[in-house]
Amino acid sequence: METRSDKVTLGMVGIGYWGPNLLRNFTQLDKCWMKICCDIDEKSLKNVQSQYPGIKTTKQYSDLIDDPEIQAIIISAPAIKHYEFAKLAIQNNKHVFVEKPLTLNIPDAEDLVRLAKEKNVKLMVGHLMEYHPAIEKLKQMIQNNELGEIYYIYSQRVNLGRIRKDENALWSLAPHDISIIMYLLESEPVMVNAIGKSYIQDGIEDVAFLNMTFPNNIMAHVQLSWLDPHKIRMTTIVGSKKMAVFNDMDTSEMIKVYDKGVENNSSPGSFGESLVLRFGDVVVPYIKMVEPLRLECQHFIDCIINDKQPRSDGIDGLKVVKVLHSAQKSLKNGGIPIPVGE
Ligand SMILES: NC(=O)c1ccc[n+]([C@@H]2O[C@H](COP(=O)([O-])OP(=O)(O)OC[C@H]3O[C@@H](n4cnc5c(N)ncnc54)[C@H](O)[C@@H]3O)[C@@H](O)[C@H]2O)c1
């Protein structure tokens, strides 16, 4: 018979907007057990008490840290608290799942990666989209060369809300798209530039347009906003053979593959028409959908139990923070190109 001792004991901090989704998923998994939830907000704790009467609640993060039974901590507090909470957890030999972005600067992210290695604990970042079955499908297609040589990728992540106070739209929204594109291409951008403007709150950009240059002449563009009439979460990949569109808002036809392209006309006597446009079928691949958040939570627990490196580990989190840092620098300097990491 399975007992609690066979399960990974968890603590969690930050039960605001996103935290309840993580809490729901972790409480549904077999191999873990949520012991304590922490939040400074009374209402958040009341919600936990009413929905999960078996889970203890506290306003003190130290209650999680000081509990020797807790093996791993889930951090879904505001980004500004990620470094402090993750560092304390790791220093106390606890595995950490921290929401994106890992930290708000490069030295803090580097410090967490170093500490996690030193303490031999798992550090995983909530780059949710790396666990999305549709992204997995796109990655397979790219690996199988179905799209041909990748020319460029662009994505849009816009909506009205959630407006943040501690970080701008770039830091809040772009981690998803940066991690998607890096995951698909299996490479990091070398150069970035970004522009953005603050319309609602002084100094906090509501809208940002980010450009990234990857090796092999691949470029990527990401449009980010919490001040937009549409809710769009879409990624378009243009390859030499085919083009694919991932629409995260379309649950029945998430990916469409367009057999469209431009080819050289090699037939004789075709003077003046050396380039031919190709129009073919549009295919909607079948995707076996599982909630990406469930896969992400399950992966964290699997990595702890089987001593595996998380897919979105601290190094992955650090890479995204480096892109964000350079993009922020560009944004504050009128959009000039900045080498990634500078
Ligand atoms: N993966 C995703 O798709 C996704 C979506 C939304 C948010 N997020 C991330 O989740 C995290 C939380 O975002 P949110 O939208 O839920 O924010 P939120 O402000 O709604 O919730 C944060 C919670 O943390 C609590 N908190 C703040 N300081 C605390 C402290 N010192 N001790 C204990 N609790 C404290 C707040 O009271 C609040 O309940 C952020 O890192 C955000 O980037 C991820």
Structure characteristics:
single chain; 342 residues; alpha/beta; Rossmann fold; six-stranded parallel β-sheet; 9 helices; 15 strands; binds nicotinamide-adenine-dinucleotide
CATH homologous superfamily heading of the domain at 4-129 and 293-312: NAD(P)-binding Rossmann-like Domain
- N-to-C span: 54 Å
**Main structural class:** alpha/beta
Mean pLDDT across the residues is: 96
* Strand order across the largest sheet: 14-13-12-11-7-10-9-8-15
CATH topology of the domain at 4-129 and 293-312: Rossmann fold
CATH first level of the domain at 4-129 and 293-312: which class?
Alpha Beta
Q: Strands, helices and their partners?
A:
Layout: E1 8-13, H1 19-28, E2 32-38, H2 42-51, E3 56-58, H3 62-65, E4 72-75, H4 82-91, E5 95-99, H5 106-119, E6 123-126, H6 133-143, E7 150-160, H7 169-185, E8 191-197, E9 207-213, E10 219-225, E11 227-239, E12 243-247, E13 255-264, E14 275-283, H8 292-305, H9 314-332, E15 338-339
Parallel strand pairs: 1-2, 1-4, 2-3, 4-5, 5-6, 7-10
Antiparallel strand pairs: 7-11, 8-9, 8-15, 9-10, 11-12, 12-13, 13-14
Helix pairs in contact: 1-8, 4-5, 5-9, 6-7, 7-9
The structure holds nicotinamide-adenine-dinucleotide.
The site of nicotinamide-adenine-dinucleotide (NAD) has 23 residues, from loops.
